[in-house]
Write the structure tokens for this entry.
Amino acid sequence: MEQMKKAFDRPPSDYDREAYLQKDQFVPHLLTVANNGYAWHASRLYLDVLGMGVNETRVLSILYEFGELQAFEICDILSMNKATVSQSLKKLEKNRLLKIESGRHGRYAKPTPESLPVHRQIVRMARSREEVLLDGFSPEERDKFRDFLTRFAENLPKAVEYTARHFQNQE
């Protein structure tokens, strides 16, 4: 924990001696390349097989995991912006894969019975592709990898705060 505090408190000038970012050593670059490649291929696959994009599959999957949700909850869980979630909800509702109902505390999206076979196909496709991507990883390495990614994501608010402190509102 002490080491993380030091990194958070390091001034940006500590990196002035680096001539450039080495992409094979810069973790955000590696994650972005991996995510972009995965998302592009997943999107093509879902469009070709299911007739919907990756955003719709993510929204539908999260509804199966959590039950009925409001749009802002979907945004928070998936780290997606409101416009993207709203558009995905409209497409899924138009295709009768979810229903939007008004409740006491707002509007809620929930999957329809017609969405179950689609969701089963999403699970089949996603989990089998994940298995291929993790080929050669031991069970322990898979657990560590998930833990590393989770901790990385949990540090995002610190990165936002660091950026605000060191790079924004400077005159």
User: Anything to note?
Assistant: The mean pLDDT is 92.
